[in-house]
C-alpha cells in the first residue's frame, strides 16, 4: 500500500474518533482501514465504551487492546456504526465485502442510529463495480445452484476461494460461502439488489445503498466530511 493511502487512512481514522466520543455503544466494521481506526481508538483509551464487532478479526483486535467487546446477542440497538468500504460512488452508495464480513456489517449498520464510513481517496469511483466485483454471501450447500442461476441471468460470477493456507471455498464467520459477481453496466443498483435478494440461497449482498449518514474521505494531507 502506498504511503499516501496509508496517510489518508490515518487522517480519516483520526476524524472518525470524534463520533466515538459522543457515543457509548459502537459498532465496528472489518478491514485494514478499520485496523487503522482501532489503533487510534487504542491510543485514545475509550475504556468506558462498548464495541460491537462485525467479525472475529475485529473482536480479536479489540480484545487484544483490552477494550470492551459485546456479543451481538446482548445488543438491541447500536448508537453509531463505523466501517470502511471497497468502493463508494458519488451518491454514497457502496460495495462492501472484500473481507467477507458483509452480512454482519450490513446488519450492524442497519440497526445503528448513525452510520459513519471512512475511506481513503482510492475507494472513490464513478460507477460501482468499476474496479471490483460485488461480493455476495451464500449458503454453502447451494453454491452451485446459485452460481448457475446467476450465470443464467447473465451475471459473470465466481466462487471466492482461498489463495493459501486452505483449499477450496472461503467460508465467512457466519458460515457462508462468498460469490463475487461482476456488476453489469447500466443496470439500476436497486434492481440488482432486488434481483439478487430474490434468489433463495443468497443470504446477503455487499451492496450498501442509502446506508451512509456521514462519509469521511481521507486524502494525503486533508479530510473531507460529507453528510447525506
Ligand atoms: C470487509 C469490508 C471492508 O470494509 C472493505 O473490504 C474495505 O477494507 P479495507 O479497509 O481493507 O480496504 O467490507 O467485509
Quickly describe the structure.
This protein is α/β, with parallel strands linked by helices. Helix content is about 30%, strand content about 25%.
Describe the structure.
The protein is of the alpha/beta class. It has two domains: 3-126 and 209-227, Rossmann fold (3-Layer(aba) Sandwich); 134-205, Alpha-Beta Plaits. Helix content is 30%, strand content 25%. The strands form three sheets. It has a seven-stranded mixed β-sheet with strand order 3-2-1-4-7-13-14. Strands 9-10-8-11 form a four-stranded antiparallel β-sheet. Strands 5-6-12 form a three-stranded antiparallel β-sheet, with no helix packed on it. Strand 13 and strand 14 (223-227) form a beta hairpin. Helix 1 crosses helix 2. Ribulose-5-phosphate is lined by residues 29-33, 83-86, 96-102, 105.
Amino acid at each position: 500500500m502506498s504511503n499516501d493511502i496509508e496517510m489518508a487512512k490515518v487522517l480519516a481514522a483520526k476524524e472518525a474518533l470524534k463520533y466515538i466520543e459522543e457515543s457509548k455503544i459502537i459498532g465496528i466494521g472489518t478491514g485494514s482501514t478499520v485496523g487503522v481506526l482501532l489503533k487510534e481508538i487504542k491510543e485514545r483509551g475509550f475504556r468506558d465504551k462498548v464495541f460491537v464487532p462485525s467479525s472475529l478479526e475485529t473482536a480479536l483486535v479489540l480484545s487484544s487492546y483490552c477494550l470492551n467487546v459485546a456479543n451481538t446477542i446482548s445488543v438491541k440497538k447500536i448508537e453509531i456504526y463505523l466501517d470502511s468500504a471497497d468502493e463508494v460512488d458519488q451518491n454514497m452508495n457502496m460495495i462492501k465485502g472484500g473481507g467477507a464480513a458483509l452480512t454482519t456489517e450490513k446488519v450492524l449498520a442497519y440497526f445503528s442510529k448513525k452510520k459513519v464510513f471512512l475511506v481513503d481517496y482510492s475507494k472513490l469511483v464513478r460507477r460501482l463495480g468499476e474496479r471490483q466485483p460485488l461480493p455476495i454471501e451464500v449458503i454453502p450447500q447451494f453454491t452451485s445452484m446459485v452460481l448457475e442461476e446467476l450465470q443464467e441471468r447473465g451475471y459473470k460470477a465466481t466462487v471466492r476461494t482461498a489463495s493459501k493456507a486452505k483449499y477450496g471455498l472461503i467460508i465467512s464467520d457466519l458460515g457462508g460461502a462468498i460469490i463475487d459477481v461482476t456488476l453489469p453496466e447500466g443496470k439500476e443498483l436497486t434492481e440488482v439488489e432486488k434481483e439478487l435478494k430474490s434468489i433463495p440461497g443468497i443470504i446477503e449482498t455487499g451492496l450498501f445503498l442509502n446506508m451512509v449518514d456521514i462519509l469521511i474521505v481521507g486524502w494525503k494531507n486533508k479530510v473531507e466530511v460529507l453528510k447525506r
